[in-house]
User: What shape does this take?
Amino acid sequence: KKDILITVKGSGVGKINLLDKENIAISRQLIAIRTKKINHLYLYLYLYLQYNYFQSIATGAAIPGISRKDISQLSLRLPNSKTQKKTVSKIYQLKEIKETLILNGKLELNKLKGLKSSLLDAAFRGKL
Assistant: This one.
């Protein structure tokens, strides 16, 4: 639980997942990272942002892949644990705000589509 899984082989190279189970078996297409001195969510979010980098360095024509060395060579500035927790908390707060804004935007767009339909209907009936 709390291990970070990175897809290292295949079309999903660079995809990051956070394990929420106690025990699982993983395939050779995955690398598991277990944190000790770093907030696991802090590292997870950092690695999540590296997706495009992992995609860009993947090698192999038929089955693209990255190596353990590719991952271990990443450089991460590591603030103290209090700052890591604050950073993670702020990112998740911003994520919630973003999701709320997206949902509100979709609701407003649907309202506008309904209004457009009503206006067009009224226009074609000569009631404008």
Q: What stands out?
A: The chain is about 50% helix and 10% strand.
